[in-house]
Amino acid sequence: MLGSLLTALTAAVERSQSAGRTTSERIRRFETEQLTLHVLAATVVFLIVLPVLIAALVSTKRAGIVTSIGDLVPGGHALSNYRRALIGLEFWRFMLNSFVMSVAVVVGKLIVSLLAALVIVYYRFPYKNAVFLFILFTLLLPVPVRFVPLYRLTTELGMNNTFFAITVPYLASATTVFILRQHFLSIPASLVETAKVDGVGPLRFLWSVLIPMSRAVLVGVSVIMFVYTWNQYLWPLVIINAESLQVAQVGLNLLRGQASTGEVAWSMVMTGSILTLLPPLALLVLFRRQLLETFTIQQK
Amino acid sequence: MTDVTLQDVRKEFDGVVAVKNIDLQIPDGAFVTVVGPSGCGKSTTLRLIAGLEQATEGTIQMGDQEVTGVEPKDRDVAMVFQNYALYPHMTVRRNITFGMKSAGDFSDEEIDRQVEEATAVLDIDDLLDRKPGELSGGERQRVALGRALVRDPEVFLMDEPLSNLDAKLRIKMRAELAKLHSEFETTTIYVTHDQTEAMTLGDRVVVMNDGRIQQVDSPQRLYDYPETRFVAEFIGDPAMNMLSVDISRDGTEYEAVGPSFRIPLPEADGLETAAGAKALLGVRPESLSVADSADRSSFPAEVTVTEPLGDSLLLECRTGDQEFKLHAEPRTAVEPGDRVPLTVETERLHLFDPQTGEAIYHAAAAQSPEVTSTVDSTI
Amino acid sequence: MSTREVFTDRLQAGVLLLPTMVVSMVFLYYPTVRAVGLSFYRASLARGDVFVGLENYRRLAGSSEYLRSVLISVLFAACVVVGVMAVALCISFLIHEINVGKGVYLVAVIWPYALPPAVAGLVFLFIAHPNIGIFTSYIEALGVDVNWFSNGPQAFVVVLIAAVWKQVGYNVIFMTAALGNVPESLTETAELDGVSRTQRLLRVYVPIISPTLVFLVIMNTIYGFFRTFPMVDLMTKGGPAGATNILIYDLYRTAFQFYEFGFASAKSVVLFIAVGLLMYGQFRLSDKYAYYGG
């Protein structure tokens, strides 16, 4: 009782004090506060970037051993390291495979999902909700849940070790259909009604109205899907045996083995890591605005 | 141009009946407004005519052709929406021509000529290369109209086209729409929830409620001879007062008897059947006035609220347990709580059946008995 | 009374839906059904399939190794969820409170979303290496013997840190968006009432953004269960002595090191049920918190 009275009194005194402060004092206080926040934020950024920074530094050194902070100076072997990884150890092949796989999956998913979302939003037909649920339910079936039977199925089809195996199973995407559907639902209904009255067909409506009006979202989902596909590891690991077809994620491990043993290996592994990180990172930085916009749709 | 006929049209959505077997005939070249509260089925009716919805029962005819199951594009109608439905990524020109090109029955020269003509009429010819985002609400509205105009359709369908504009612009566009119609004389069906728009624009006004057509008439007749209590209360602002009364008869003299008043009813059709029963007496606020002094023709009422509107003084009054509103002369010296004597303009009285809501009697019918209508409607 | 469903040609609808439906059917539903079927067989590529009924499940229930893997997975996922969300919430709040340069900080913090888990694993393996890691000597100077190649708990922690590092960015994306949607008026009211920063975060913001937090709990759980596979594979191979042998890694080994496809399928079915329960949980929880969502 007494305690709470005391607290209330102190608070009242503090309030009257702060009210009595001059404006310049308050601005100064605000500025030091902001400065502290900036210092904190910069520290956080540094900590998050640090591991990759170290990797980048190591990728410029001939010997890949850094055992103390004093070793963290850039070496002069950046060019030769990257050349050796890409060409000498043929990492370009893994990168290319990853790239082709990711682009194929992104393009395929976009087409397939656009058509599905078009039907789900703009067509009237029986059991529509059931169809939508059928698509959404696949969210419960991620690769880890089904890669064992999928492996058997693909092998039986004779499709293991093929490009088909690392692209086609990824083409159906509940996430993409869902994001597109949400976006289409935010477009006024009167647009499609006008189109209908004017005799504009569904595909022309998709091509001339929906796609141009969905540019940001399409870019956003493309980045999400690219990152998702590029980062796939488990499925290519089990279904691809031929090195010539392997993707960068798994290729990294092969690089570790190939780059002979000893200290050189680590600078090669870090070089490969930086190379593997670059494409998705570049997309994220370039298209961050569209990506963030799309994420806010996904969560709904 | 063509006439449009709806016969026994019914529309259900998952068991909910939106339109309950309506019949409506819209003559060639008419400007018909459809008005009613939200959810009354007016928009659904329009969409049925457009072909955006398919009727559950009944037929729709345009000219001598039945269009009930026909695709919208083959009905030769153009529609204007409340939110204009412009494609935000296309220029004004492309917005206007996009639909025409899809229809495929216009040549390029024809399209150019039509666009030039329509945009000149609407005064938007200097906006052709802009996108909708750079236009004001009024300009977007004109573009939407332009898009409908260039198609040169048989019927214009408009779904609350002015509702997104501010009050001033709405009045201006209203006049322009009327002018456009007198110029092109294309059959126009115009849906609105705003009774002023409905009354000022329509040659004929269709009043709908709860999926049914209440009345189809010219604006003035709708106001003077409401066929149902709903129409009487919906048209006019403030709404017509409804007082429950008993109808007494003394020889050929009829009176509406309330708790504190007896109002003589002029002789006209319907009085005889009403006599001796309860009825609702319909009195418009402007048919009541404050008398200079209490006499035999006046009755007393208590003022509960005063609202000075500038050109008149709106009074809310009470007599017994019945409340009503009236327009008094501006600057009348009354205060809430005052008891004032009121007189009523007896030739502007209406009686309605308290159960069915149907009109039994219009006092003014004595003066103008003829009832004509070019628009037929069955309720 | 407006609807977008203006097209009615069922044949067209069917044709347009066909690619999604066929791929879902063949590569998503069929394998899942087949996993259930296979789980009743002793199946291997070499010797063909033999029906064994519930034998695989009985074996699962009786396997202390598997139970340990379940426990480790749950513990790992729980640590990932708590670690990621605590760190991400602090970072998001920090960015939210900063007045200028928000966008730059945001990108500088969320980029690990694009980081391949395999890269995360290799980089961490390198910098935390017990022998040649850059920080090893400093940590050992503090009296800690860095030997996570043989010390289970240490291995668990190192993989956990790598997993958290990779996932924080994704969480910050959603949290800053949610914080940005908190009405300015609430912040001002709280400030006028003299509520401290931390109190404002915990008492005002967290309840308001709780739908986002629920969503993230689920995403992080799934991440902790599955997406950390490359890190485990590259850093510890499930070891030492099973200390990081999470379910997905265990499943991978059963199928592709021991080639016991029937047994692996039974493990897949268990995973499927776990994912189903998780999703159901999210569904129920977000229903419950819908009030805050607005």
Q: Any overview of this molecule?
A:
The complex is a heterotrimer of chains A (300), B (379) and C (294). With 300 residues, chain A is mainly alpha-helical. Chain A has a domain at 91-298: MetI-like fold, CATH 1.10.3720.10. Helices cover 74% and strands 0% of the residues of chain A. Chain A contains 14 helices and no strands. Chain A has helices at 2-20, 23-58, 78-88, 91-122, 128-136, 143-156, 174-185, 189-197, 202-213, 215-230, 234-239, 248-258, 263-286, 288-298. In chain A, α3 (78-88) packs across α13 (263-286), α7 packs antiparallel against α10 (215-230) and α10 packs across α14 (288-298). Chain A is flat and about 70 Å long. Chain A starts with a helix and ends with a helix. Chain B is of the alpha+beta class and 379 residues long. In chain B, 24% of the residues lie in helices and 34% in strands. Chain B is built from 9 helices and 21 strands. Chain B has helices spanning 42-50, 92-103, 108-122, 137-150, 167-184, 195-201, 219-224, 229-234, 271-274, and strands at 4-13, 16-26, 31-35, 57-62, 65-66, 77-80, 155-159, 187-192, 204-209, 212-217, 241-250, 253-257, 262-265, 278-283, 288-290, 299-308, 313-319, 322-328, 339-344, 349-352, 359-362. In chain B, the strands form 4 sheets. In chain B, strands 6-7-8-3-9-10 form a 6-stranded mixed beta sheet, sandwiched between helices. Chain B is elongated. The model of chain B is unreliable at 368-379 (pLDDT under 50). Chain C is mainly alpha-helical and 294 residues long. Chain C has 2 domains: 10-51, no CATH class; 60-293, MetI-like (MetI-like fold, Orthogonal Bundle), CATH 1.10.3720.10. In chain C, 73% of the residues lie in helices and 3% in strands. Chain C is built from 14 helices and 2 strands. Chain C has helices at 10-38, 55-62, 64-97, 102-110, 117-127, 136-141, 152-180, 184-192, 197-208, 210-227, 229-235, 247-256, 261-288, 290-293, and strands spanning 41-44, 48-51. In chain C, α2 (55-62) packs across α13, α7 packs antiparallel against α10 (210-227) and α10 (210-227) packs antiparallel against α13 (261-288). Chain C is globular and about 75 Å long. Chain C starts with 9 loop residues before the first helix and ends with a helix. Residues 290-294 of chain C have low confidence and may be disordered. Chains A and C meet through α1, α2, α4, α5 and α6 of A and α1, α3, α4, α5 and α6 of C.
